[in-house]
Amino acid sequence: MSFNMGPLTPVTDVGIGAMELYFPQNYIDQADLEKYNKVSSGKYTIGLGQQQMGFCADNEDIVSISMTVTRNLLETYEILTDSIGCLVVGTETLIDKSKSVKTALMDLFPGNSDIEGVDIKNACFGGAQALLHAIDWVTVNHQMDNKNAIVVIADIAIYEDGPARCTGGAGAIAFLICPDAAIPIDRQFAACHMKNTWDFFKPISSTSSEYPVVDGSLSLASYLEAVRMTYTHFMEKLVRHGNKDVSIESFDALFFHSPFTKMVQKGLAVMHYTDAVLRGEKLNGVDTETKLDENDRASLAKMIELSTLVWKNKTDPYLIFNRRIGNMYTPSLFAQLLAYLASDNCTTEGDKNVLFFAYGSGLASAVFPGRVRRSSSNLEKLREVALSAIKRLDQRHRFTAEEFTETLKLRETFLHSNEFPRIPNGTVLFPNTFCLTSMDELYRRKYAITECEVVNGNGVHS
Ligand code: ACO
Questions:
Q1: Could you give the CA distance from residue 86 to residue 177 in angstroms, rounded to a whole number?
Q2: For 104-126, what is each residue's pLDDT tens digit?
Q3: Contact 126, 118 (CB under 8 A)
Q4: What is the CATH code of the structural domain delimited by 15-460?
Q5: What is the pLDDT of residue 456?
Q6: Is-catalytic flag, 124?
Q7: Whose CA is nearest to atom 39 of ligand 1?
């Protein structure tokens, strides 16, 4: 037996048609954390390039932040729930070893159970993989029933007390993936570097923990190796398919996974240098035949110096969410796209070419290009959403490093109990945010949505 699909029109420009960002209303200042942790002044703010760090109390978890951002996407862009045929979640923040976050999101699609997709996990890379899967799904399936896909990428990044704690954060992004998109992704040019490493992982052990095991220096070296390898594979692929003149100069903006923004600057420096090596070009008089090595501090410093202009023009201006929220894991890379959409650089004449570098420890990494289509009717709405997200950064509440530490202790306690979340004094939720309200003896969780800003878990003011 063979199935007849009828005449189908191929779709083009599949990519991001709509986008929303959620981040918690609680944050701490990195300068306060430097004092609290008794490290030298400037270590987190200058050394790592971080200004602030967002955090969630124990009434927010991966399901609640994913529900919040998905609902916001559906409402803001007036997306009909029965127009969705695929929903993929990328996250490394697991609260269950079997049940996916995606299944919980089905509550937001009443009457439409024909939605393919589950969760994809590999550290910070699961978000990029979820995006690429959804693009594939739309490319193959959209012609059949005119259905689109949603991608939800979300994480709560927290570390045990120690040198990595300052590199936490939390956030969630939802994308609508459709044909004729405002930001098509040219996913056929995606090039990967995949390798078995133990730089950052979350083993199943006798005691549950939300904290990863981290080999800090291996994770930094693995990230830079991944930049060099993915960019090399990407350029080789382009050349193989007749695109000989593409270089880093061909892109208006370059986005990187951001554990902290200083890491991004190093990543960009390695990409910029690799570009020159591949093209056999001199860089500001430096002969690239005399190899610089990203693992050597002096060489890396030289690469950073050589890439100063590219950093200033194509990457640094778009790190606002990364500097002020911290590492959101899967959304960290894509928050730069949103910042770019808000920028004046995005409004000048002509379509824009952008490049994404995705990295997830363990390790999985990829480089892929996208385009911002100035002619797209959705671009103005996307810009509005981006500008409003930037404004929201100033509507957050600042907490002390002591209060942040107390909150993380409460999350630890909650994880080892099945009690009602004990929200620490003063932590807050934006209006229209889902929160965890209870957990029963089988660890089944319940959620509710706040209508106004919520303080102390129950006192409500608008
Ligand atoms: N003023 C200015 N700069 C300073 C100061 C100061 N007072 N003090 C230190 N610095 C600089 C250091 O020179 C260093 O910069 P450099 O390496 O560019 O020279 C930087 O601040 C950090 O200082 P370190 O001593 O190297 O920091 P530490 O070893 O304590 O921790 C680390 C840093 C390894 C990144 C840690 O935060 C960590 O393990 N984080 C989690 C892992 C991570 O984010 N990995 C990245 C990729 S994987 C992922 O996305 C999770």
A1: 9
A2: 999 999 999 999 999 999 999 99
A3: no
A4: 3.40.47.10
A5: 45
A6: yes
A7: 216
Annotated binding residues for CoA: 219, 262, 266
Which residue owns the Cα nearest ligand 1 atom 18?
47
**Residue 34 known to be catalytic:** no
Domain boundaries defined on the chain: 15-460
Nearest-atom index, ligand 1, CA of 222: 47
Global model pTM greater than 0.90? yes
Give distance in angstroms: CA of 251 to centre of ligand 1.
29
Q: Sorting pLDDT into bands at 50, 70 and 90, what band is 288?
A: confident
Residue 462 has pLDDT above 60, yes or no: no
Distance CA 410, CA 413 (A): 5
Distance 209 CA to ligand 1 centre (A): 23
